[in-house]
Amino acid sequence: MEMSEHTSKQFDVDLENIRTKVLQMGGLVEQQVERAMDGLASGEVFVIDQVIANDHRVNLLEVELDEACSHVIARRQPAASDLRMIMVVIKTITDLERIGDEAKKIAKMAKRIHEADAGFVPRIEMRHVAGLAANMLHKALDAFARLDVHAAAGVVREDAEVDREFKAIMRQLITFMMEDPRTISSSIEILFIAKSIERIGDHAKNMSEYVIYLVKGRDVRHTGVDEIVREAST
After folding, report:
1. What is the CATH number of the domain that holds 13?
2. Which keywords has UniProt assigned to this entry (predicted)?
3. For burial by CB atoms within 10 Å, which of 30, 61, 76, 125 has the most?
């Protein structure tokens, strides 16, 4: 009995360590997104290069967490909610790694934009949509930390606003390109950045849906927003 209790306690410690490391990875990814947008706004080469260089740290954490989850499955053979937790962690770290990739893409595009002739770079306001997506990421991580289904459902609802902002930016860029073909090159790069921001929102939404699955035991992906909110409320 004592051995069994000890094993159970060790298993809880393993799970808690994994959860903590996911949040650590989340914090690093949040920082990457924030710095990529700072680099885009300021054109500071050091900030941009730092984001590109730090991407390997995000990838390393994904690999470490993947291995930790594999070990827990092999050693502990978790069941029910514990197994759901491991599955959610594996999915969440994939989304976090992809958000890291989007931050790196933003940094690379920012570098190109600031190297281009400023006269042909369309002035597009992206701080607002970037703030929305970054806020979604922060709330998704918070929902995971607190296993808060209501907060998770709120993040899913916010994704529509990011999508609307992306479409508005795309319309603005098309207008710029039609009016002055010399802006085409920079416009395409800005479009890639806007798409990356929209993808960050998508990944944060995915992470929030996993939290609902973890707590409720029901997969709510590919379900309407209202149905997800109802599911969170029951």
Report:
1. 1.20.58.220
2. Cytoplasm, Phosphate transport, Transport
3. 61
CA pair distance 123, 117, nearest whole angstrom:
13
CB contact burial 57-77 (16+ within 10 A = b; e otherwise):
ebeebbeebeebbeebeeebe
Q: How far is CA 95 from CA 180, 181, 186, in A?
A: 37, 36, 28
Domain of 132 in residue numbering reads as: 2-233
This model's pTM is above 0.70:
yes
Contacts by 70-73, CB closer than 8 A, 24 or more apart? 72/11, 72/14, 72/15, 72/18
Angular region, 147: left φ>0, alpha ψ -120 to 50, beta rest: left
Running DSSP on this structure, what letter comes out for residue 117?
Answer: -
Q: What pLDDT, in 10s, does the model give residues 34-64?
A: 999 999 999 999 999 999 999 999 999 999 9
Number of domains in the chain: 1
In contact, 152 and 143? CB cutoff 8 Å? yes
Distance of CA 71 to the CA centre of its chain: 25
Rounded to whole angstroms, the Cα distance separating 42 from 30 reads 18
